[in-house]
Amino acid sequence: MNHSGTIVFLLGFLLLVGCSRSAEHGHQTDDYTRDMAHQHHDDIPVPAVAEAYQPNQSVRSAMVTYGEEGTLQLRGFLAEPEDAEARAAIPSVVMIHEWWGLNDNIRMMAERLAGEGYRVLAVDFYSGEVAENSQEAQGLMRSAMANVDAGISNLSQAASFLAEAGSSSVGIMGWCFGGAWTLNAAIAISDQLDAGVIYYGRVNTNTEDLAQIEIPLLGIFGEADGGIPVEGVREFDALLQELGKQAEIHIFADADHAFANPSGTRYLPEAAAQAWEKTLAFFARTLD
């Protein structure tokens, strides 16, 4: 084969590999989205239930613009203690919604965490859209999962926004869809973060990816979660330990997917309360 023929062959080979990897990512995204659709097929968000939880101190909240992606403004829900301006730098948390979107439940959780003394920015991956049923959520999730670079950029800009607001440290947390993106962020932008909490999000068992994590992690999972199988969670935990990462993985017996969502039909109050206590204790240790 002559020199020009070799170049053509190599370019064709690299294109084939690139397409294969892209196709593999696409299949993984579709599989994950289908798994979540299956888990939530009989579930609906019930905002009225979420309103029962009040923060432990006065907080203020508002929609803010925290960045941009192309021509799109990134807007999220910012909640912080009422006296935040009078304080020294306070710890902050990027919060990522479930597959339903930035709905009343997530705004409530942002205010609830702000009531513990944190500045919380609940990001929006759906550009203002909120799903009211599983079919709508499946479409929104599929679109968001298809562009990993845009998602990481979204979270990076959110972390930068909080850092520039005078935060002493920046954590990240999310549920379901948001749990998967919390892990993605821990891998991709550890240099911008100080800790992460994953609530029943898709795990990653690629050691090259996990090796990039430089922040402590807390994982909250349900033993009966058919969408995030417990065997995979245990493998994920074992790999993190082998790599010497700071990770605490808790698997709640008899808990299904979304067991910590007070606005969903899978809610387990006792397990959810225990998970929340572990979350607060973890952030108290890792964020200052």
Class derived from helix and strand content? alpha/beta
By CATH, the architecture is named 3-Layer(aba) Sandwich
Task: Tell me the Rg in angstroms.
Answer: 20 Å
Q: Beta-sheet strand percentage?
A: 15-25%
Q: How far do the termini sit from each other?
A: 62 Å
What oligomeric arrangement do these chains adopt?
A: single chain
Let me know the number of strands: 8
Which strand order do you get reading across the main beta sheet? 1-2-4-3-5-6-7-8
Which whole number gives the mean pLDDT?
A: 88
Overall body shape: globular
What is the fold named in CATH at topology level?
A: Rossmann fold
GO molecular function, one term: hydrolase activity
Protein name: Carboxymethylenebutenolidase
InterPro entries: AB_hydrolase_fold, Dienelactn_hydro, Dienelactone_hydrolase-like
Domain Dienelactone hydrolase: 75-286
Please provide a written account of the structure.
Pfam families: DLH. InterPro entries: AB_hydrolase_fold (IPR029058), Dienelactn_hydro (IPR002925), Dienelactone_hydrolase-like (IPR051049). GO terms for molecular function: hydrolase activity. By secondary structure, the chain is of the alpha/beta class. It is globular and about 45 Å long. It has one domain (25-286): Alpha/Beta hydrolase fold, catalytic domain (Rossmann fold, 3-Layer(aba) Sandwich). The model is unreliable at 3-27 (pLDDT under 50). It has an eight-stranded mixed beta sheet, sandwiched between helices. Strand 3 (92-96), helix 3 (104-114) and strand 4 (119-122) form a beta-alpha-beta unit. Helix 1 (3-39) runs antiparallel to helix 4. The protein has nine helices and eight strands. The chain has helices spanning 3-39, 47-50, 104-114, 134-145, 148-164, 177-188, 207-210, 230-242, 269-286, and strands spanning 59-69, 72-81, 92-96, 119-122, 170-175, 195-199, 217-222, 247-252.
